[in-house]
């Protein structure tokens, strides 16, 4: 049996669908001896052809989250490939060919579950030009529409409650080496062979963005008295490894921001604990002009989005680390002759602090300071990698990275987790001073 409950290509869903119609960071000596925690190599059980989750080119979001775990353990990452069909757990995890399954629904009985690391939902998908305007399955615009659905998944029963009977069925359990029914269902919508489809959210979000026609993805909320649309997804391990589970639970807490960033890049619809859907932040065409401490987009056009492990590798290879957190404003109420010493600023070791350059409309002095500082730090080499950051949910770093691209820098890396993500990954911070010539500070009301 397979392990990822809601996905139409995972046989573990069959069983459940029928039923419903803290370890320290790092590799201490104690951790090395603990039951189940990999000390030489992290071996992950995965499907070699199952995007957006995984493939043998390591392009899936589970591949990337597994790499985060391996980097945190400071061990190499290896995969044991097996199709996500009946026998997956029996032939991989149970035979100890691997030590971790990256995605399984909470409650899966074939494995011991970690705490959940994301909650997603089924989603309705239709073409933007289809005339459908539905935000729920009760919308009248769906009446009579030909709707694709994977057999024996929760949407099947809920659709009938809303009188949606013109269904195009797709197979549930299949060999992923040859068939991808959920992906095919979405392609049929894009090609107008069907009008809409209801698919597991990670699949819907990922493949909808890869069609040649604009698609609408509507994450669905649970309906009272009906089969749920939303499921919590955890990692799966063997039952006799409590220390490994504790370590993974601690990892999820520490690195949740990095996990969420990866999921956002793959357009995975995320649900909050109360069932509401998290809004995906769209990338604006211009710069962010206000409310700089707010959720940011998952990516930046023209830049590579990186995490702590990539930043560490880039720094060792000679990349320039650019911290753009604003300098703190002078407290109100001080007299003009009062002496005020700002608190020390802690950043990544070796980082160059360029305060106040991440505003949407910097002053002439701030813009000149940013331009001349980058020229000096790179010695005029526009191909020199730059890693731009501040803190999580900080548009300052997004703006500054975008501005560096506009200045002609060709290897800009955006690090949205910033200093908090660096600490969460187990690294130390260092006290840094602003680069010379930082210029004027913004008004206190701007420092948000």
Give the structure's gist in a few sentences:
It contains twelve helices and 19 strands. It is an alpha/beta fold and 448 residues long.
Shape: globular
CATH superfamily of the largest domain, by name, is Periplasmic binding protein-like II
**How many angstroms does the end-to-end distance come to?**
50 Å
Structural class: alpha/beta
Rg on CA atoms, Å: 24 Å
The total domain count is 3
Determine the strand fraction and express it as a percent band.
15-25%
| Poorly predicted tracts of residues | 1-32, 440-448
Query: Count of helical segments?
Result: 12
Average predicted confidence as pLDDT = 87
Give the arrangement of secondary structure elements.
Layout: H1 12-20, H2 29-33, E1 42-46, E2 49-50, E3 54-55, H3 61-73, E4 77-81, H4 88-91, E5 100-105, E6 112-113, E7 118-127, E8 147-150, H5 154-161, E9 167-170, H6 181-190, E10 196-200, H7 201-208, E11 215-219, E12 230-237, H8 242-265, E13 304-305, H9 308-316, E14 320-323, E15 345-347, E16 352-353, H10 364-378, E17 386-389, H11 395-406, E18 412-414, H12 418-424, E19 430-432
Parallel strand pairs: 1-4, 1-5, 8-9, 8-10, 13-18, 14-16, 14-17, 17-18
Antiparallel strand pairs: 2-3, 5-12, 6-12, 7-10, 7-11, 7-12, 15-19
Helix pairs in contact: 3-8, 6-7
């Amino acid at each position: 049996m397979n392990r990822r409950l809601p996905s139409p290509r995972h046989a573990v869903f069959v069983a459940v669908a029928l039923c419903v119609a803290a370890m320290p960071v790092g590799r201490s000596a104690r951790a090395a001896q603990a039951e189940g925690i990999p000390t030489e190599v992290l071996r992950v059980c995965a499907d070699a052809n199952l995007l957006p989750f995984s493939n043998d080119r390591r392009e899936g979001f589970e591949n990337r989250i597994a790499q985060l775990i391996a980097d945190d353990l400071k061990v190499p990452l290896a995969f044991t490939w097996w199709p996500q069909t009946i026998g997956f757990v029996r032939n991989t995890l149970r035979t100890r060919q691997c030590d971790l399954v990256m995605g399984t629904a909470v409650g899966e009985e074939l494995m011991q579950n970690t705490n959940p690391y994301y909650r997603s939902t089924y989603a309705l998908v239709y073409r933007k030009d289809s005339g459908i305007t539905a935000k729920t399955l009760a919308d009248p615009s769906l009446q009579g529409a030909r709707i694709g659905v994977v057999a024996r998944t929760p949407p099947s029963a809920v659709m009938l409650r809303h009188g949606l009977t013109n269904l195009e069925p797709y197979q549930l359990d299949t060999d992923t080496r040859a068939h991808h029914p959920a992906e095919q269902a979405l392609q049929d919508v894009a090609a107008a062979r069907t009008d809409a489809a209801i698919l597991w959210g990670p699949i819907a979000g990922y493949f909808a963005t890869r069609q040649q026609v604009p698609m609408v993805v509507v994450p669905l909320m649970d309906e009272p008295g009906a089969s749920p649309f939303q499921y919590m997804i955890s990692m799966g391990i063997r039952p006799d490894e409590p220390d490994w589970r504790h370590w993974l639970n601690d990892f999820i807490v520490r690195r949740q921001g990095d996990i969420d960033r990866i999921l956002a890049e793959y357009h995975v619809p995320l649900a909050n604990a109360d069932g509401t859907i998290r809004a995906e932040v769209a990338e604006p065409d211009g710069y962010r002009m206000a409310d700089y401490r707010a959720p940011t987009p998952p990516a930046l056009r023209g830049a590579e989005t990186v995490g702590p492990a990539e930043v560490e590798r880039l720094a060792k290879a000679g990349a320039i680390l650019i911290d753009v957190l604003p300098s703190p404003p002078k407290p109100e109420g001080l007299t003009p002759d009062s002496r005020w010493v700002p608190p020390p600023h802690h950043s990544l070791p070796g980082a160059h602090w360029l305060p106040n350059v991440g505003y949407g409309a910097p002053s002439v002095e701030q813009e000149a300071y940013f331009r001349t500082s980058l020229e000096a730090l790179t010695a005029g080499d526009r191909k020199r990698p730059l890693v731009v950051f501040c803190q999580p949910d900080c548009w300052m770093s997004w703006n500054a990275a975008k501005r560096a691209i506009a200045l002609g820098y060709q290897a800009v890396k955006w690090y949205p987790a910033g200093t908090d993500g660096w600490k969460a990954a187990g690294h130390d911070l260092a006290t840094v001073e602003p680069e010379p010539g930082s210029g004027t500070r913004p008004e206190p009301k701007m420092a948000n």
